[in-house]
Specification:
Layout (H helix, E strand, L loop, with lengths): L1 E6 L4 H12 L3 E7 L8 H5 L13 H5 L4 E4 L6 H10 L3 E4 L8 H5 L4 E4 L5 H16 L2 E8 L9 H14 L8 E5 L5 E9 L2 E9 L6 H11 L5 E4 L2 H4 L2
Parallel strand pairs: 1-2, 1-3, 3-4, 4-5, 5-10, 6-7
Antiparallel strand pairs: 6-8, 8-9
Helix pairs in contact: 1-8, 6-7
Length: 242
């Protein structure tokens, strides 16, 4: 049984992670951090019936609960601090926040696996695979990504990762791929990559209609991270190919 602590447990993504972890028979939800709801039980906060976990205000609650894995969906201003805490306390990290710079020390340490993914939706990972073939054969490309207005980074991590794959396939630079960011109420997370060639266009699009779409990928990461090589792993692709 893998013991999991969720940071940002009462946020939009954190709630779904708590429910998914609690429902998985291979995992145990043992700790939750929510500074806005500290002291309240998770069963009333996020609807994880039968859980006796009480939200805490500090990450030390994960150490006290002997968590094996820290799952973080908070914000780019806190993610590096949470990753560093996981390394210092020998708790593996699954990081779902985007919009922050990686620290080379995360890959150089040999205490835990730090897993970071720009997108946990398996369909989005497949979309990023498909664009590589198209990038080789069609000369023009632009990316349009759509997210809810509370998304803090623009362009999104998924859009940047997609542009990187296109640039790598063509031997160019990420800056060569235009990215357009749209922030609208009613949107969860969508992305389309539009290719153009002589007399034709090709659109490769992925739509997320509900945040539960990310949960299969999160659970894959949580289960895999404890057995991964120490250091930094980036992207769900690395786990789907294992």
């Amino acid at each position: 049984m893998i013991r999991v602590g969720v940071v940002g447990a009462t946020g939009k993504m954190g709630r779904e992670v708590c429910r998914a972890v609690h429902a998985d028979p291979e995992l145990a939800l043992v700790a939750a951090v929510s500074r806005s709801a500290a002291g309240r039980r998770l069963d009333e906060l996020v609807g994880v019936a039968g859980s006796d976990v009480v939200a805490a205000s500090e990450l030390d609650a994960l150490r006290e609960a002997r968590a094996d894995v820290l799952v973080d969906f908070t914000g780019p201003e806190w993610a590096p601090e949470h990753i560093a805490w996981g390394i210092d306390n020998e708790v593996h990290v699954v990081e779902g926040t985007t919009g922050f710079e990686f620290d080379p020390a995360w890959d150089e340490q040999d205490r835990v696996c730090v897993f970071v993914a720009p997108n946990f939706a398996i369909g989005a990972v497949l979309m990023m695979r498909f664009v590589v073939d198209a990038a080789i054969h069609l000369p023009d490309v632009e990316i349009v990504e759509y997210h809810h207005p509370d998304k803090r980074d623009a362009p999104s991590g998924t859009a940047v990762a997609t542009a990187q794959r296109i640039a790598d396939a063509r031997g160019g630079e990420v800056a060569d791929v235009p990215i357009h960011s749209v922030r609208l109420h009613g949107v969860v997370a969508n992305q389309e990559v539009i290719f153009g060639g002589t007399g034709q266009t090709l659109t490769i699009r992925h739509d997320t209609t509900d945040r539960t779409a990310f949960m299969p990928g999160v659970l894959i990461a949580v289960k895999a991270v404890v057995g991964r090589p120490r250091g930094l792993t980036v992207g769900l692709d690395a786990l789907l190919e294992a």
